[in-house]
Amino acid sequence: MFEECPRAYKFKYIDKIRVKKRQNVYGFLGSIVHETLEEFHKDLKKGKKYSLEGLIELYSKLWNEKWKESIKVSHPDHNPDHFKKVGGQCIKNYYEKLSPFNKDETVKTELRVHPTIKKDGKEYNFQGLIDRLAIDKKGQYIIHDYKTGKNLPSRTDLIKNRQLPLYQIGVQQKYTFSENIVLAWHYLRFGEIIKIEFDKENLDSIRRDIIDLIQIIEEAKEENNFPAMREKGANCGWCDYQKICQEWKPHSGNEGFKPNQSQQKLEYFL
Ligand code: SF4
Fold first, then answer.
1. Nearest CA to ligand 1 atom 2
2. 158 and 112: one domain?
3. Which domain holds residue 124?
4. Domain count, the chain
5. I need a surface site. Which of 20, 120, 198, 213 has the fewest CB within 10 A?
6. Model confidence over 233-252: pLDDT tens digits?
7. Is 268 within the bounds of a domain?
């Protein structure tokens, strides 16, 4: 977040401003697809395997049970049904791509990890949620991450990604025996899986990048310098802080927002 808009980072992590969020259809679609695949793999681990039709039915049931009229559908041409179909297609693509599901075994779904990076006697703590950690027949661990977004990045883009390598560090710290790990990004709308292995050198480089970024954040804190990046690439249309951001529109008061000063933490969210 800091790299996209330091001002938004300040609102969230320095000022700890609480925002009453209105869920949008993209977030909802992602959460229902994730929940469906979590159920699927939990059941598979217990020996129950859904058919494709059964899994689509589960997805549809979860969607119908959880859908609320208050969910924002900010698309001029599409209604909620369109997005429901997109999610259904994600499930179908996943199923068809991985069936018969015998390449690996699930260790855990929705696994919370707490990677730590140390530098000059300081310890920096992070947290992340792995969609599915699995192990294959050769004993290699795989971190699976589900994406339901509209963009399909290249391998080159993903090599610069820090999220999954950081999860890898977390897994290696939790399961010390897990030396070799494959990172698997599932771009569900496209039925594409991109797999990358980060070796020790790659991970050290990611660690250095993260430490550099933390130092930049610390300097920003000292100088109280958190520029707003509207017009410079920030995704303001999706920002939770539009109502209080001077750059978005004239300040309209702080209704619905309140700082939470009781939470002083050392955790970093990048
Ligand atoms: S509205 Fe745009 S400029 Fe303002 S905090 Fe959000 S992302 Fe940054």
1. 236
2. yes
3. 105-198
4. 3
5. 120
6. 778 888 889 888 988 864 34
7. no
